[in-house]
Amino acid sequence: MSAVRNYFQELSTQVVQGWNRFWFSPGDAYCLGAMRALIGAMALWFIVSYSTDLVTWFGPHGLLTVPTVTRLTGIADSDEPVFTQSILFYVDQPAVLWSVHVVAVLAAAMCMVGLFSRVASIVTLLMVLSYVHRAPMLTGQFEPVLTALLLYLCIGPSGRALSIDRWLKSRNGKTAEPAPSLAANISLRLMQVHVVMFYLIFAFSKLAGEPWWNGEAVWWLMAQSESRLVDFSFLGQWNAAPVFNLWTYAFIAYEFSFAVFIGNRLARPLLLAIGFPLWLSLIPITGL
Predict the structure, then answer these.
(1) Pair 108, 127: CB distance under 8 Å
(2) Are residues 31 and 115 located together in one domain of the fold?
(3) Is residue 44 scored above 70 in pLDDT?
(4) How many domains does the chain have?
(5) Residue 138's closest CA among 58, 217, 194, 236?
(6) Which range of residues forms the domain containing residue 55?
(7) Using one digit for the tens of pLDDT, what is the confidence trace for 134-153?
(8) What pTM, to 2 d.p., does this model score?
(9) What is the 3-state secondary structure (H, E, C) of 197-241?
(10) Quick one: average pLDDT of 163-178?
């Protein structure tokens, strides 16, 4: 009995120590700074993508006026309180729309380069949410990930390293290396956990669709002429079904593998090396 008791005592000790080490050890300021630059670039790309059709979508006579969106989303007919707010609900004149849009672009650019990093990250989050809530029918799987990452970025001191804020401090004689901090670690850990959860959700949701089971999902993505950037439909004449099957199953296998092995230091570089070209391969066939 003593051996069993000792085992569970050691197990509980290791679990608690691992939990505390994961969440409450100081986090690297440089890693958070790099994430700020990456997330800021993603937010900037997302906001700038609306530039060509801003008034077409959100103008006074646009395709998605506020009454149209509230009707399509069911908000107009709901008796429940509405918590999805957007600055763009209250503006539709072209001049005001463009003013808000320019502010959003500047905020995302400042977040990316690390200028007034904390304020810029908060404003960027609010602006991205404004676009998402204003036209949820234009969003996909990218926006939930982006908004979650921006939220966690607001928690940590993301401007302490790899930023203009850091450069300005160094010019004023404050040259000490940015120290690791608990807030930086919590911010990074929340990002890691959320990304793993998203990968699991994506993987399981694919298993609910028959095209992913029979290996035809990539072919169906290619066949959607309204969204693809490159027309690969001619490959259907070359008996390339095994390629499409392998391509389809590679996404499912990668998403499950990412969720399971991303915590392993040795597997992490391999997962990133495989994932980069795999996700890039979606761009020409989906337009994302």
Answers:
(1) yes
(2) yes
(3) yes
(4) 2
(5) 58
(6) 25-172+181-195
(7) 988 888 878 988 999 999 99
(8) 0.81
(9) HHHHHHHHHHHCCHHHHCCCHHHHHHCCCCCCCCCCHHHHHHCCH
(10) 82
